[in-house]
Amino acid sequence: MTNTTDNGPLLEVRNLSVDFRIDRKTILHAVREVSFTVGSGETLGILGESGCGKSVTCMSILQLNPARTTIYPAGEILFEGKDLLRISPKEMQHIRGNRVSMIFQEPMTAMNPLYTIGTQLMEAVRLHRPGIAKAEARELVLEAIASVRIPNPDRIFDTYPFALSGGMLQRCMIAMAMLARPKLLICDEPTTALDVTIQAQVLELMNELKEKEKTSIIFVTHDLGVINEMADRVMVMYGGRKCEEGETAEVFLHPAHPYTKGLIASHPSPDYTGRRLPTIPGGVPSLKDMPKGCPFNNRCSLATEKCAGTFPEYREISEDHLAGCFALEQQGENHGRV
Ligand SMILES: Nc1ncnc2c1ncn2[C@@H]1O[C@H](COP(=O)(O)OP(=O)(O)O)[C@@H](O)[C@H]1O
Ligand SMILES: [Mg+2]
Questions:
Q1: Which domains does the chain have, with CATH numbers?
Q2: What is the whole-number distance in angstroms between the Cα of residue 190 and the centre of ligand 2?
Q3: pLDDT digits 0-9 by tens, 22-75
Q4: How close are the terminal C-alpha atoms of the chain, in Å?
């Protein structure tokens, strides 16, 4: 197994469910019984179309879902032996931006427009090393800015966020996240808002930093190509459920869940010649229209009555490769492989 160390995985999410209370009578289920692990130095990709519960899952780790309306009816989020769903706000404050950092799709939302990049990055250092001398902190910040390949770190230090392009700002966010030397870095679609060339550069940079620092990463994206480039293992989500999980190469070569198969079929391969790709019919339902049983049943060509009843047990496809689909039962032991 690649996802465990001697002391077990760095992060173990067990059976996580997340609800939102909309009004007195309405509770919506955003995430359902999701379990996964992230090992030391490992990158777990979370893949799924928009609205499948990827962000809500990640925000649960740092308790960033709106406190007033979010309910965690079941589950555990074990990080370094502590259940993050049950620690005090003070303990969570210590973990946030320190042991666990998060990078979002819109870097501007995580930066304060009133302070220079330098001031905000210095803050990130102080969080990690409260007593550090100012000159030393400045050195670390300049080094971090240089490490994300921004020319003239001195100049950027005194720049305000609004003066930077999206790509530059996202690099600064990566520098800020890495300055805290987190054990776990959560990246929620960090390159989705960037154009393709800049996206490729930022991904390469993240891979380099990962190699150097051995940071564990959760990388969320709806883009299969990005998962392929970044993730050791992948968890595919649909309708708030985990539908498939395994080593990236294994899942992409032998997808077992009809949703994963559909995502792969609709993704252009490198030798794509412009022919029309098949798409999965329909769209991701909103929480209030979520189908019962397997949430994918109303878009799935293999669905039977059973699929609208309950969500299936996960079945082992091969070592460290799971999928939850009733159709796998009928396909017997080789799960449709030839
Ligand atoms: N705070 C919230 N209150 C109510 N519904 C929410 C909230 N946050 C997300 N949702 C809903 O939960 C579902 C999953 O959202 P999200 O995790 O953001 O999807 P994605 O996979 O695109 O990241 C969506 O239907 C979204 O509208
Ligand atoms: Mg999201």
A1: 11-99+182-278 (3.40.50.300), 110-181 (no CATH)
A2: 10
A3: 999 999 999 999 999 999 999 999 999 999 999 999 999 999 999 999 999 999
A4: 25
Whether the pLDDT of residue 283 is over 80: the answer is yes
Residues with CB under 6 A from ligand 1: 20, 30, 48, 50-56, 65-66, 69, 286-287
Mutate to test the pocket of ligand 1, among 55, 106, 221, 223 (most ligand atoms within 8 A of CB): 55
- What is the model's pLDDT at position 63? 95
Q: How far apart are CA 229 and CA 258, in angstroms?
A: 22
The CA 153 to ligand 2 mean position distance, Å, reads 31
Report whether pLDDT(147) > 50. Answer: yes
Q: How far is the CA of 51 from the centre of ligand 1 (A)?
A: 6
pLDDT value of residue 338: 44
